[in-house]
Specification:
The complex is a heterodimer. Chain A is α+β, with helices and mostly antiparallel strands. In chain A, 72% of the residues lie in helices and 17% in strands. Chain A is rod-shaped. Chain B is mainly alpha-helical. Chain B has a single domain, classed as Helix Hairpins (Orthogonal Bundle), CATH 1.10.287. Chain B is built from two helices and two strands, in the order αββα. The chains are: A alpha+beta, B mainly alpha. Chains A and B meet through strand 3 and strand 4 of A and helix 1, strand 1 and helix 2 of B. Strand 4 of chain A pairs antiparallel with strand 1 of chain B.
Chain lengths: 151, 119
């Protein structure tokens, strides 16, 4: 009876824990996709800055305005650009400074991505172990009830 | 087992669910404000490294409007103060909701115990 109670308790704990772990995995997955979007954006910005830097002043460019449409423009300044620093504030920097900033940002994002991926792996492994233990308990139960049923 | 849940228990369970929802909403709001605060800190430390003649802009809708480093630092400080106050209020609300949740859970457990003893 005591052992049965203990098993019941473990079963309940495993069920609750699996549910929590699944929730954590969903959150981590969302965080990963946000980080990946930021990485793509920062890479794109750094690449654009490299491109602008290599162009001459007055070069004709097309500025995207959405909907696959563009407005014709010319590069007036190929040395300084405006970079957002968060909290609705932007600062004028040299292109080299801006590129360096984006590279640093990319480095930080990569580190965060690795740590989130590591967490994801740990939680997945824990969830897998819980599921295995759950099916073990359920199988053992089936084994216990079978002889009772057969006369 | 299998019988309907007594109304008093149902009421307590509904109360617990409601408090849990409130708690979730409040803590989400607090987390968002804390993220905004982190953004402000980052911007302030970046502005701190610049000199007063730096060219800076402020986002207004889809426009960037030219401003000065001092004005922006002042604005950020004010926003930070306001956000800190709101975070403190939300933290208090969260604590209160947690206490109510604990009380409600204890009441539910007591009611469950009594209904088990009852024939």
């Amino acid at each position: 009876m005591k052992a049965q109670d203990k098993e019941e308790e473990e079963l309940r704990r495993l069920l609750i824990e699996s549910e929590i772990l699944e929730g954590t995995l969903t959150t981590l997955r969302q965080r990963l996709s946000l980080i990946e979007a930021s990485i793509t954006e920062s890479r794109m910005a750094a690449e654009t800055l490299q491109g602008v830097k290599s162009e001459k002043r007055g070069a004709e460019i097309l500025v995207p305005i959405g909907g696959g449409s563009f407005v014709k423009a010319r590069i007036e300044d190929n040395e300084r650009v405006i970079v957002g620093i968060g909290a609705d504030v932007s600062v004028e920097k040299t292109i080299d400074e801006a590129i360096k900033d984006f590279e640093e940002r990319l480095g930080d994002l990569e580190k965060t991505r690795q740590s989130v991926e590591q967490q994801f792996l740990q939680v997945s492994q824990r969830l897998e172990a819980d599921r295995e233990r759950l099916s073990e308990i359920l199988k053992a139960r089936e084994g216990e009830t079978r002889p009772v049923r057969t006369p | 087992m299998g019988e309907t849940i007594p109304p008093a228990l149902q009421e307590e369970i509904a109360r617990i669910q409601q408090i849990q929802q409130t708690l979730q909403a409040v803590s989400l709001q607090r987390q968002q404000l804390e993220l905004e605060l982190m953004g402000i800190d980052r911007a302030v430390s970046e502005l701190d490294r610049l000199t007063d003649d730096a060219i800076v802009y402020k986002s207004v809708g889809s426009l960037l409007i030219r401003s000065t480093r001092q004005t922006l630092l002042q604005e950020l400080r004010e926003r930070k103060e306001l956000l800190n106050m709101r975070v403190a209020t939300l933290t208090r609300q969260e604590e209160r909701a947690r206490e109510r949740l604990k009380d409600s859970q204890q009441r539910l457990q007591e009611k469950l115990r009594l209904s088990n003893i009852a024939p």
